[in-house]
Specification:
This protein is α/β, with parallel strands linked by helices and about 450 residues long. Helix content is about 40%, strand content about 15%. It has a single domain, classed as Aldolase class I (TIM Barrel), CATH 3.20.20. The chain starts with a strand and ends in an 8-residue tail after the last helix. Bound molecules: phosphoenolpyruvate and cobalt (II) ion.
Length: about 450
């Protein structure tokens, strides 16, 4: 079914500059880990990746909506059945709300089962005059600030592969279990709405969702509990060791996750990441920040989706609330004018990171909501389809983002993220409800002919 790749199939990236790769101190140990992974079983299968691609093709056509979410960085210490099922449940609750608001079936993807490597702005971190390698995610080194744990250890690549396997196993079981049934999501939503501050509007929305019959798509293809897996394909040694040639199609697929994305810091059109991603057949995404130029974006699309394959490429805009209304319109208009079949998704997290007085990285709920609102305005205004949301969230009761019930003072006691701040379940549902309300109001305006294309 899936075979070890022929040596040259996915190695062309090695000739090009690769940003954000760790300096492994022991090349022999890296080689050993790569050999182990090359023989390891695939986590996902090409057929599943193709199914996701067909789902994302529907997203690009405006016939489905994507909800993608999970940790900024998974952590080996925090892999727990409770936490995994809560996060999977939260994604499903958001899917229920967005599906109703958009009147569309929803595709769900976790930032889970492989999201262990982080791009960083500096190679080292200094505390009290001591300088050590920066934490690059549990795939590379340890979070604790001491020389031993900060030394990159390639054996970690095998550990995170094993942890991802276990996570995925649990999610696959969860998807067929009671907890993933639409009723469970609906119960949670009703419970949230009944206790929410903006209760009146929320309860009406929850009743609407219940009457509409949950989020099973009208055309019937959305299977509740169908949750695909994704992560940033940052560490190219890891990804290429887990790439396999599909014997059905003779094409290479990354088998570490269904969808991989290229981060804002590694999307150089002539760089190693774009080269590797161009060589695999999975559905892929690329993050785009406010500095991208229109021509640069078109070049990236040419490199990553030369065949203009529906569902192949998702563009994830992460512009920041202050920039989205200025930067995104030109890009969307250009891509639409060229007739390129991409899906447009909003990551309202990464352009809105600030530092709290206590020193933690945080994000304001209102900025996240504002960027998302701007995304819907801009995409709708350009005649394209708002395809979905990409969020850093958890089902756990953490305090990492501020607003919607949490203040700066709440952060120190309940901040668990080893990287960026996540929305907790209440905040995630709050965001979905506020957006849903806004989306439904717009639909009504369109229905009565009062809308004029944006606020
Ligand atoms: C992330 O998704 O955690 C991330 C680092 O995003 P970006 O590449 O958009 O900065
Ligand atoms: Co992040």
């Amino acid at each position: 079914m899936v075979d070890v790749p022929s040596a040259h199939a996915v190695q062309s990236w090695r000739a090009l500059p690769a940003q954000q790769q760790p300096q492994w101190p022991d090349p022999a140990a890296l080689h050993q880990a790569v050999v182990t992974l090359t023989k390891a079983l695939p986590l996902v299968f090409p057929r599943e990746c193709d199914l996701l691609k067909s789902r994302l093709a529907a997203v690009a056509r405006g016939e489905a909506f994507l909800v993608q979410g999970g940790d900024c960085a998974e952590s080996l210490d925090a892999v727990s059945a409770t936490s995994i099922s809560r996060t999977a449940g939260t994604i499903q609750q958001l899917a229920t709300v967005f599906g109703y608001a958009m009147s569309l079936p929803v595709v769900t993807i976790g930032r889970m089962a492989g999201q262990y490597a982080k791009p960083r702005s500096k190679p080292t971190e200094t505390r009290d005059g001591v300088e050590l390698p920066v934490y690059r995610g549990d795939a590379v080194n340890g979070f604790a600030f001491d020389a031993a744990s900060r030394t990159p250890d390639p054996q970690r690549l095998v550990r995170i592969y094993n942890a991802s396997t276990a996570t995925l196993n649990l999610i696959r079981a969860f998807g067929t279990g009671e907890l993933a049934a639409p009723d469970a999501a609906l119960e949670r939503i009703k419970h949230f709405a009944a206790g929410a501050p903006g209760r009146h509007a929320y309860e009406a929305l929850a009743t609407g969702i219940e009457q509409a019959g949950g989020f099973t798509g009208t055309d019937g293809w959305h299977t509740p509990g169908e949750l695909f897996m994704s992560h940033e394909g940052l560490l190219l040694d890891y990804e290429s060791a887990l790439t396999r040639v599909d014997s059905r199609t003779a094409r290479p697929y990354a088998t570490s996750g269904h969808l991989l994305w290229i981060g804002e810091r590694t999307r150089q059109p002539d760089g190693a990441h774009v080269e590797y991603f161009a060589s695999i057949s999975n559905p892929i995404a690329v993050k785009i920040g406010p500095s991208i130029a229109e021509d640069e974006l078109l070049r990236l699309i040419d490199r990553l989706d030369p065949e203009r394959e529906p569902g192949r490429l998702t563009l994830v805009a992460r512009m920041g609330a202050a920039q989205i209304r200025n930067v995104l319109p030109g890009l969307v208009k250009r891509v639409t004018a060229e007739g390129l079949p991409v899906a447009w998704v909003s990551d309202p997290m990464h352009g809105n990171t600030i530092t709290a007085p206590c020193g933690h990285k945080t994000r304001r709920f209102e900025d996240i909501l504002d960027e998302l609102t701007g995304f819907f305005e801009v995409i709708g205004g350009a005649g394209a389809h708002p395809g979905g949301v990409h969020l850093e969230l958890t089902g756990d009761d953490v305090a990492e983002c501020v607003g919607a019930g949490l203040t700066f003072d709440d952060l120190p006691a309940r901040y668990r993220s080893v990287c960026d701040p996540r929305l907790n379940r209440e905040q995630s549902l709050n965001l979905a409800f506020q957006l849903a309300d806004d989306i439904l109001k717009r639909h009504r305006l369109v229905g009565t002919g009062l809308a004029s294309g944006g606020r």
